[in-house]
# Entry
Amino acid sequence: MNQNVREIKNNTLYFDGCDTTKLAATYGTPLYVMSYTDIKNRLEELKRDFTDRYPGARIAYASKAFCTEAMYEILKQEGACIDVVSGGELYTAQKVGFPAERVEFNGNNKLPKEIDQAVSFGVGRIILDGLQEIELIEEACKRYAKKMNIMIRITPGVAASTHDYIVTGKKDSKFGIPLDEDVFMPIVKRVLESDYLTFVGLHMHIGSQLFENEAFIEALDVLMDWAAKIKEEYDADVKEVNFGGGFGVTYTNEERKPYSFFLDPLMKRLKQRAGEIGIEVPAAVIEPGRSIVAEAGITLYTIGQIKEIKGLRKYISVDGGMGDNIRVALYQAQYDGVIANKAQETPDETVTVCGKYCESGDIILNDFKVPGSVQMGDILATYSTGAYGYSMASNYNNNPIPGVVMVKEGQSDWMVKPQSYEQIVQNNVMPQFLA
Ligand SMILES: *Cc1c(COP(=O)(O)O)cnc(C)c1O
# Structure
């Protein structure tokens, strides 16, 4: 867990130097809070253990975990690359003047207009995820008189041990190109022969929330087998290898592994395999998403109704729920937290924390321990909500999407303002024939 930015004193939770009960009072709840210091610490760890350590290595932050202008600004300042998967993420990057060559475009069904946007912007890499995409990219290159660097995403056929919805590397997957000789090799050949495309390497992403290395290494071995075939048949070198993301984080009691736990063995294997194939060691790329932002985020809620179902369960309701954190309903994700204004009182009662949305599955915390004195008006903080919380938020029940405050050593300011009711309905119009 992220002890260094989380601190409990005077019976209160502090986050990156800020009193969270004051944040709740100042900015209102529900509220996402992101720690600048924690994000920066992660980026520094990656720098020290990866990009400074291995020549040519780079990180491409997986934007989908948390995508806002200020987040991109931080990555821009830190010299990182970003991985985008939609025209909207690309637009956000363009809006903050993110350097185009540091943008990598991923996705299993990139739309023609998104490909056009990416090529006209001049992104650094497109991660090819299917045959039909090739022509779309070529046409866009023709329109803008550009060439495009292409990484090819493979489906390594490796099943990582994690939740089924976030396994992406097994053979039956909508992501990547299946490694059947008669499917894969013609695609590589097509890229190599194109006047508009430059083949730079291979990409894989085997899943998310991984804590072990075996599946990573196994998948890399598969990838390098194909790098060898590409060398043999087409005399082409794989110059870059993208390992994807998925580095696990702490939600409750998992033990977070340092990046080096994954990356050192992977780099060793990469070097060894490149030597065997007789190619230069490819530049390595990773796409961490949640591991950069998950633990940097907390969510603050105000406690409302408390219901005791005699002999069964006690429900504590908060003023947010599945609209700001869908992961519990979607993945049975487990979180931890604390009553921020009673942080040092003994948690002696087990409750279910639910949201205000009209679904029984709208749960935030299962079997959560609170002090018996918990009451309406108390502030609940849930931990490790920085990834896939805000980015997956919805307007279900026409509840506004909460704002995001960034904190840094006792300072705080908005990075995303909360939605207003007016903004929820701003695109609503009356069909002419109703008038
Ligand atoms: C989701 C995703 C990532 C990031 O995964 P995390 O678990 O957030 O690190 C990286 N690469 C690709 C292609 C992805 O789809």
User: Anything to note?
Assistant: The chain has a mean pLDDT of 95. The pocket of pyridoxal-5'-phosphate is lined by residues 62, 64-65, 83, 106, 205, 208, 244-247, 287-291, 387 (CB under 6 Å). The CA atoms of residues 42 and 129 lie 29 Å apart.
